[in-house]
């Protein structure tokens, strides 16, 4: 494997260990309803119907333990596939589980390496794009690899960078969490940037760029905002719900999902997850390509020099980090975040306006 030029995970341990909202059948059905229009049709079934005939050969980006390509082959959606990933242990697991299926694997760092083989008519991004630092370089290479008739399918986290949720989203999720009975509430631990950087610096590294960069290189043919702004925050990492029998929690999970749908539909562009089917764009402006490549080089060089930080902390993260003892409860964190934001805005106003605002505020 070539030396990396981008962020790479220190280990594959977290990938299939953490507890996510989609352990719940109701969540899957909710997401599938939003993605495909049918609660019992998953993206693989939808992709197959959309395309109308099997794909010849798929490239599966950051394939992890290989379940995606096994499902694609077993269900007759693709004839053969190549999986690439950086983690040798996951690749070994995938290769062992492949059995006699026409699946091949290669270890590589997608940020730096060229993709193996050619002749693909499908590229699959399942929960992969949000781990890629050189997202422009990679999506550009994938579009070129596919050719004009190829298909790119993506089911990915496209929410805030490194899960640094904005205060209003965190607060809205917190309010829904409080509607649950005590024994089902989530501890709602805000994912502090330092912890994210220590655990896996690739986690959601450029998630908020995934859709925009995809649009640079692909024409979107099917796009659905799956949501998550409320339900992902309340149900993921929430053993109180995930460990109970689903029949017992069903009405409460349904309530959380109804809030989630309303929150997502009010502003679909803020969705945490998206399902997309796209085709490579035929019309690319060379000047833009150079500009985007340069932008990416600058962005990554600056972040590398700053310990992997791309943006200033969110107001919520700032407020929590300012608390020396225990992490603040979400409502208190948001209140403090609001105050610190207010102070920052005030500091930027001309002194005359600032004094006027303070006079009104103080009565
Ligand atoms: C969230 S997991 C998704 C795995 C799989 N696609 C799935 O849906 O189960 C992210 C994957 O990205 C891989 N990964 C992270 N950085 C990578 C890189 N620079 N090059 C290749 N793979 C990478 C990880 O090893 C991991 O398997």
Report on this model:
- It is globular, with a radius of gyration of 22 Å.
- The longest helix has 21 residues.
- It is 47% helix and 13% strand.
- By secondary structure, it is of the alpha/beta class.
- A 7-stranded mixed beta sheet has the order 3-2-1-4-5-7-6.
- It is built from 15 helices and 7 strands.
- The chain folds into 2 domains: 285 residues, Rossmann fold (3-Layer(aba) Sandwich), CATH 3.40.50.150; 38 residues.
Largest sheet composition: 7 strands, mixed
The gyration radius over C-alpha positions equals: 22 Å
The total count of strands amounts to: 7
Report, as a whole number of angstroms, the end-to-end distance. 66 Å
The portion of residues forming beta strands comes to 5-15%
The CATH topology name of the largest domain reads Rossmann fold
CATH homologous superfamily designation of the largest domain: Vaccinia Virus protein VP39
Instruction: Give the C-level CATH assignment of the largest domain.
Output: Alpha Beta
Poorly predicted parts: none
Helix-strand pattern: HHEHEHEEHEHHHEHHHEHHHH
The secondary structure category is alpha/beta
Query: Given the C-alpha coordinates, what overall shape results?
Result: globular
Helix count from the secondary structure assignment: 15
Bound small-molecule species = S-adenosylmethionine
Number of separate structural domains: 2
Strand arrangement within the widest β-sheet reads 3-2-1-4-5-7-6
CATH arch. level architecture of the largest domain = 3-Layer(aba) Sandwich
How do the strands and helices of this protein lay out in sequence?
Blueprint: H1 25-36, H2 43-51, E1 55-60, H3 67-74, E2 78-85, H4 88-98, E3 103-107, E4 122-126, H5 135-146, E5 151-157, H6 167-179, H7 193-199, H8 210-217, E6 218-227, H9 231-235, H10 239-242, H11 246-266, E7 273-280, H12 286-305, H13 315-322, H14 330-348, H15 351-362
Parallel strand pairs: 1-2, 1-4, 2-3, 4-5
Antiparallel strand pairs: 5-7, 6-7
This protein binds S-adenosylmethionine (SAM).
